[in-house]
Amino acid sequence: MSSWLDYTINGLIVGNVYALVAVGLALIFGVSRLINFAQGSIYLVGAYIGWVAVVQLHTPLPLTIIVVAAAAAVVGLIIERFGLRPLQNSVRIAPLLATIGISFVLDQLVMLTFSPNPRALPSQLPDVRFQVGGGTIGPLDLLIAGVGLTSALLLFVFLRYSKLGWAVRAASQDRDAAMQMGVDVNRVNQAVFGIAAALGGVSGMLVGMYYNQIDTAMSLQATLKGVVAEVVGGAGNVPGAVIGSLLLGLVESYGVAVFGTSYRNLFAFLLLVVVLVLRPNGLFASARQAPPEPLTGTFIAPSRPVRIPRWALLAAAAIFAVLPFFPVSFYVLQTLINAWLLGMLALSLTLVAGTMGQVSLGHAALLAIGAYTSALLSLTLSVPVGLAVIGGGLMSAALGTLLISPSFRLRGHYVSIATLAIGEIVSLVILNWESVTRGPIGISGIPPLSLFGYDLISPSSIYWFSFAVMVVLALLQGRLLGSHLGRSFRAIRDDDIAARAYGLSLNRYKSLAFIFGGFAAGVSGGIAAHLYSYINHETFNTQQSILALTVVILGGLGNVVGAIVGAVALVGLPEVFRIAAEYRILIYGIVLLLLVRFRPQGLLGTI
Amino acid sequence: MAEQHNSMLSLRGLTRRFGGLTAVDAIDLDLARGELISIIGPNGAGKTTLFNLVTGLDRPDAGSVSFEGQDITGLSPERLAAQGIARTFQLGRVFGNLSVMDNVLIGAHTRLRAVKPAVPVIGPLLELGLALLRPASVKAEEERLREEVKAILARFGERLLPRIDQPAYSLSYANRRRVEIARALALKPRLLLLDEPTAGMNPTETAEMQALVAELKAEGLTILLIEHKLEMVMRLSDRVIVMDEGKKIAEGPGEEVRTDPKVIEAYLGHGLSGTAEQESAA
């Protein structure tokens, strides 16, 4: 009995922390219809500022909280002013991509400043436990509850009684009407981002104290949990976000009680997927909403794609094909092999995100499915590696499409959330399904690539193999885009309502896009598994998903040649300039931000 | 019953509520084959919501829609398109990044046969395979449809044909409306719903559009038209239905409807009927 009470208290406390993140997300969504993927990074920044204050400056607790809130608010204001305000009149995908880019830049800056090693964040509170009924509660629990309640009260007073609070509520009900009535939307956005960031920063600090540990992996987890709570409560619904957070905290806590700690996140993401499928507007949304008004403007940046003459493409392909005959170093070949593997992933993502408009943030999961399938087929069933790789592609196509299918009726940002969550679910299933995937130990001794009985060991043979596979996939994709399917995908992306009115089934065509794209990504993952010879649940992570997204934006959404050019550029240029590995992700994030701001159509143009 | 048999589209007690607002309130309507009915009424009268209910983009709270004697209430827009119901949208919903040709080809989507084998379960996979392999039958179908699209675009004179490969976002507003209508015609509709086809067009463009709609009607197409330009409504319509606040307040031949005091009141509010009569007589 007592332990159940403990789990309940724990669930409510953790829920309280999630609420601080989720309320910020809900405020921002309410005003600007944007899911701020950088919210978790502010939470991370808050935790580290708290660490500096507590450990280095020895500030007393109340001052620490104020310092963290103020510093995080400044970060929020900077994000709003320089990251998002310039994008106000751009295409719908731009602010979404910008918050993703900002999140990566902030995380990397924190990591470079403080090193990725975990640090202890002492709470400065006495370590005593009070008996409450059958359970116990500590001063930190009370602090978290107190901060949660105080913030809720302050927010309520602000929204209810201050003039700016009225403006925020007006803008979230009807932005255009509010603007016409003279509400300064920029000020409203500033207020909302400042408040959201302050709450997020304090939340990060409290969590750090609660577990007495902070590390840079906190960011993505916080974003995910906050988004889950917010979506459960109904996007943009502030009280809903609080209830959703408490519910999420309890679900996780009870889940951990029954199944163990490694299942904590699995429950969170399953809750998200269930809510998205059954009640995409959240648990507390009114049953049925009026169909949205026709959208002016398009999802991706309109552009005229750069036409590359066929002879130039053939020439480039020929040069890359004969490259190993020339005295190039192993290092160059290795770099290009990585580029070809990334190119396959980018082909997949450019089809799904660019041509079909489903911005997937969990694309690495398709790599993982392909890699595990191919590795296990060749290891346990002794399937020839060439066939195993194809098997990996097919499994990725089938399983990936099946997993994503519940989110086919979602739009825009929701697709990104759902794919992010599904990516995490795949990774957690790989971690926990030990009888098949060997769990945290991973799979070692994966046989090398081979074709018709010949092992491909030499760098040039691996180079040719991966290049040939990528070229074949690219040609197939080009053919697909030229068929009626290409125009059907693009029609659904541009306006799914008009597409449906002309008989295009969203389920059918989204499935086909994911089947085709899933195959390319699965093949890429399969080849990678045989090259690495060892894989585990962390081999294919969110960083790869984001890298692929940056490649796709760089090349131009939906652009087949662009995906390959982007892959070569993003893999090759850091090598050319000898940029240290730890700075690369920072640079990818900055590239993404600059592209969204200054060349949203990418190098070769969107198609 | 006899009337119902004759009519292509019939609505019975069709109702849609948004919260406290009844956007469409117990509308009855019968549209005979080859007939053109215009729906007029002030902004917010529920005309577009009615279109959404007929084309499956929204579901009614009560009432029924039948098409060619079959109950189609609440069917999905995809199924209704396949039945031969095409529509245009009030604010324009062209596919911005698609060329004019591709926009109109999408209109012919429901008529694709060679590339969409009607095989259950594996149908979509076969469709993918055929799209990649492109056997002669698929190529021939595509070629035939492209020729058809050119013929449809030719109906708009030199407005669209020279821009056939341009993306729709680069077109003028009026041309986008034309692309929408071309797309609807590519479906080979049995019933065409036009939602304010001349919105934002100047008098010359309006006259062109009016001539086109008259042509379509002469060819025997059944049309439901929402339109604010009364002159065009009077010229084209067999009957006019007037909606206000979700309700049908008048129905009949154009001349009868335009002098109906209820209609004048709905358009111009109370106490202005005198001026309204002058205006409608003008």
Automatic annotation (TrEMBL), chain A:
Record localization: Cell membrane
Any one GO MF annotation of this record: branched-chain amino acid transmembrane transporter activity
Keywords from the UniProt entry: Cell membrane, Membrane, Transmembrane, Transmembrane helix
Superkingdom to which the source organism belongs: Bacteria
GO cellular-component term (any): plasma membrane
Stored Pfam families: BPD_transp_2
Bilayer topology annotation: Multi-pass membrane protein
Annotated transmembrane regions: 12-35, 42-59, 65-84, 96-116, 136-159, 191-211, 254-278, 311-333, 339-357, 387-405, 412-431, 462-481, 512-535, 547-573, 585-604
Annotated PANTHER family: HIGH-AFFINITY BRANCHED-CHAIN AMINO ACID TRANSPORT SYSTEM PERMEASE, HIGH-AFFINITY BRANCHED-CHAIN AMINO ACID TRANSPORT SYSTEM PERMEASE PROTEIN LIVM
Protein name: Amino acid/amide ABC transporter membrane protein 1 (HAAT family) /amino acid/amide ABC transporter membrane protein 2 (HAAT family)
Organism expressing this protein natively: Bradyrhizobium huanghuaihaiense
TrEMBL record, chain B:
Keywords assigned: ATP-binding, Nucleotide-binding, Transport
UniProt-listed CDD domains: ABC_Mj1267_LivG_branched
Superkingdom: Bacteria
One GO MF term: L-phenylalanine transmembrane transporter activity
PROSITE patterns associated with the record: ABC_TRANSPORTER_2 (PS50893)
Biological processes annotated in GO: D-alanine transmembrane transport; L-alanine transport; L-isoleucine import across plasma membrane; L-valine import across plasma membrane
Keyword Nucleotide-binding carried by entry: yes
GO CC terms, sorted: plasma membrane
Domain ABC transporter: 9-270
Function: Involved in beta-(1-->2)glucan export. Transmembrane domains (TMD) form a pore in the inner membrane and the ATP-binding domain (NBD) is responsible for energy generation.
Name of the featured protein: Amino acid/amide ABC transporter ATP-binding protein 1 (HAAT family)
Species this protein is from: Bradyrhizobium huanghuaihaiense
